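Predict structure. Chain length: 215.
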Amino acid sequence: MELITLLIDFILNVDQHLEVFVQNYGAWVYALLFLIVFVETGVVVMPFLPGDSLLFVVGAMCGVGLMSYPIAVGVLLVAAVLGDQCNYTIGRYFGPKVFQWEQSRFFNKAAFDKAHTFYETYGGFTIIAARFMPFLRTFVPFVAGVAEMDRAKFTLFNVVGAVLWVVGICTAGYFLGSLPWVKANLDKIIWAMILIPGLIVLWGAWKARRGSASA
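Prediction complete.
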């Protein structure tokens, strides 16, 4: 329970914790950033780690000289790309092993074929869009692996999505983070970056479930 409390406190006050970490450990902050983003995007059971808010805060800290913008963005890009690639590989490896018996209760051949077709057709857009959605950015690459999406196609959109996500949000934090209004309301901005995408995901899931139930 104490670990969960500490994790929630870190997510909601990521700016304060990162600043203290930089003051105490200096350049080791880049290793911490790599670890957080890699685990959030690369391990399917860790979707609750900070993503968008972390990138924005890192950009803001770069803007005031606490970190190097090129190094931070480079480290985060590598972590984001490798994380999704790891998640895809895990799904690709375990999917066939779990679903190898077509008559087993764990395997639905029709659902698998639909998932494979979906990812081959719309996988690129899904992978890029999921970068900006908490939880989805953790599960989408895993499901892409399970659905056996073409690896080269996945890698291309993985890199494109990572660049748009990391560079876009870090740059926004770099230029906006030092504004007085942003600094005064950073806690609210962090909440918004957590809740708004999450609510969009929940609304989309509810709508899809409602549509399938009425079909």
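Summary: The chain is about 80% helix and 0% strand.
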